[in-house]
Specification:
Elements lengths: L4 E9 L3 H11 L4 E5 L3 E9 L3 H7 L3 E5 L4 H8 L3 E3 L2 E4 L10 E4 L12 H11 L6 E4 L5 H9 L4 E5 L2 H13 L5 E4 L12 E5 L2 H8 L6 E8 L9 E9 L2 E8 L2
Parallel strand pairs: 6-7, 8-9, 8-11, 9-10, 11-12
Antiparallel strand pairs: 1-3, 1-4, 2-3, 5-6, 12-14, 13-14
């Protein structure tokens, strides 16, 4: 790819975080930095300058700055390890403590390292759940599938409607030496695999639509703020985790 890399910072009101996060994933599949204050979410995307126009069309408050020499190392420093559900989650240049069960995700592939609060909240709920066959719906980097395998779930099927996500999940599963059946599939349109547990870390609207299509007995969902109230007819919420303004729910099918 020709052209220089730049840092594009976009700012949105915190209540628009879900939509901004989804847009940023599509515009910067290599990942992005995220920070927030009381009212505002800031996402910083490191992209080729040819991608700036698309970002400016998607967001109204955009600032473009050149990246300084050594920005790659600064970008690496941003991706720090996290822990959830008794697991260490981090990039390949960091190392877990001896004896820790690790989920290693390369943020250069897609979708960050898996340290986002929604990911960690889902893993916390998985750790509290009975081990069973599992469907990861909208798998992204595959971090939740790999975490589930580390926690003892299986067999595991991971699906996504994005070919990049499918390729990334396969690569990350191989790097972590876990067995995951990965397929290209649209969770809102295609027939879904029948598994006892489903995890879906997507956005609120897709979560609500997906809940009407699943046959699983247990569903763990996230991808929305902790102020959101998920509409889930036919399901009852049995557990909830909130982290840094985001939420995840564990639903069981209502009797």
């Amino acid at each position: 790819m020709t052209g220089k890399f730049v840092r594009v910072s976009v700012r949105v009101p915190l209540e628009q975080a879900e939509e901004a996060w989804a847009l940023a994933l599509g515009l910067s599949p290599g990942g992005f930095e995220e920070s927030e204050d009381v009212t505002t979410l800031t996402l910083s995307l490191y992209v080729n300058e040819s991608a700036v126009l698309s970002i400016e069309e998607a967001f109204s408050d955009v600032e473009v700055t050149p990246v300084e020499p050594g920005w790659e190392d600064a970008w690496r420093a941003f991706h720090q390890p996290a822990r959830a559900g008794g697991l260490w989650i981090g990039p390949p240049w960091e190392r877990p403590n001896p004896g820790e069960h690790a989920v290693v995700i390369d943020p250069g592939r897609a979708f960050g390292t898996g340290a986002h609060p929604t990911t960690r909240a889902c893993i916390e709920l998985l750790a509290r759940s009975e081990r069973s066959p599992l469907l990861d719906l909208g798998c992204g980097s595959g971090v939740l599938s790999i975490a589930a395998a580390r926690l003892g779930f299986g067999p595991i099927r991971a699906v996504d409607n994005d070919p990049v996500a499918v390729e990334t999940t396969i690569a990350n599963a191989t790097a972590n030496d876990v067995v995951i059946d990965v397929a290209l599939l649209d969770g809102e349109l295609d027939a879904l695999p029948v598994m006892a547990t489903t995890v879906a870390n997507v956005l609120l609207a897709p979560v609500e639509r997906i809940l009407t299509r699943l046959t699983s007995g247990v569903v763990i969902t996230s991808g929305y703020l902790d102020t959101a109230h998920t509409r889930a007819p036919g399901w009852r919420s049995t557990d909830r985790v909130t982290l840094d303004g985001w939420a995840a729910n564990r639903f069981e099918r209502a009797p």
